[in-house]
User: What shape does this take?
Amino acid sequence: MRSVDLENISKYIEVPDNARTLLEQCERQTIINLNVRVSGERLLAAKCFVVYHNTARGPAKGGIRLSPRVTLEETVDLAERMTWKTALVKLPFGGGKSGIAIDPSTINTFERINLFHEFVHVNECALTHGSYIPAPDLGSNPLDMAAIYGQTHMLECVTGKPPRVGGLPGRLEATGRGVAYTARTAIEALLERPIEGATVAVQGFGNVGSWAAHFLSAWGARVVALSHVGGGVYEAGGLDVESLIRDFAKASDFSGAPGDLITNDELIALDVDCLIPAAVENVITAETAATVRAALVVEGANGPTTPDGDAFMADRGIYVIPDILANSGGVIASYIEWRKAKSGSITGRDEVFESIDSLIGATFDEISALAAARNLSHRTAAEIAAVEEVVQAMRDRGWI
Ligand code: NAD
Assistant: This one.
């Protein structure tokens, strides 16, 4: 399944056959065996997938996912989403992604560093030439990026590093900030109600979900539910997000938290203004979409909605703001980090947040206008804008 249905998009804009040929396949897909002997008897042997989907608009940009279940197919899907995401917000990057099939909870800090050094070893050429620029994704973190940075002689070849090691203040919060700003903008513009008092449920309390909940609650929204993989917590009057971040950010469920314990499916079905799936893909299926009572869904995770789930929600008039806009805050901050290193400029946290808010706000307005003018969903409008941008870049490069 492709993240964007080009057949559908070509009903609205011209997508030449040669463009489709190039966009329906990846420029490069590599499968590497990462083998690292970390101590006398212990060998880490993990499959590693490195994918560049399309680099017409710039070097392949995309995070490294660490998960025992990651596959080549999933990495391809995520790389393709990066092509559309960077094009939609007009950053000078193409789409890429890596996946390392390992359970991060089974390796210690020393082993992680060795694993990432090996990742550099096998991808050294692409990293040092700047043709692939990684960042954190599910299961990886800024310290892993610091390991890559050190091993590449501190070339500006990786983003999402800790602020003291060439990173950017605000990068850690950036994806969640963008998700929160998208939700706020959509609540105000589409539901025509103020953010203060709007009710929100967030699935996933990792990097994206916890920061999204943090900003929304700081702006006065009532965050009534949060969840981890093992389940969530609900409090109709609103949760104390900061104390949950302090006590439950590293947990896998909310046992012992104040409030009612709920399942992830129950969270999806809550009667709230805005539902934010910010954990994993394919959680809103035809089956779970039938239970959604939110008026608005803001996709914090990559690909949380299946095509059937999407069609179901569109029929019921539920607004869905797609991942390629809603979670673009991370790659926007990555771009600022990359640019900062090239120019030597110093950028503060507030400036990073202002850039995310203004770029997401302007893109939201652009796709909302297109959606309204042509009676389209926000997803289709965003995909039209992104595909048009990439097709035009391929023309500019003389590829088609
Ligand atoms: P994370 O590992 O920090 O957190 C993941 C959260 O999801 C945890 O709370 C975990 O318990 C929960 N979870 C895991 N499996 C689940 C399941 N089956 N059902 C419900 N909850 C589950 O990951 P993250 O960095 O916050 O990324 C979350 C999503 O956002 C992913 O789809 C990722 O690709 C996407 N994303 C992340 C970034 C980023 O900068 N971190 C940027 C863009 C997109």
Summary: The pocket of nicotinamide-adenine-dinucleotide is lined by residues 136-139, 175, 203-209, 227-229, 252, 264, 278-280, 300-302, 327, 330 (CB under 6 Å). Residues 26-169 form a domain with the Rossmann fold fold (CATH 3.40.50.10860).
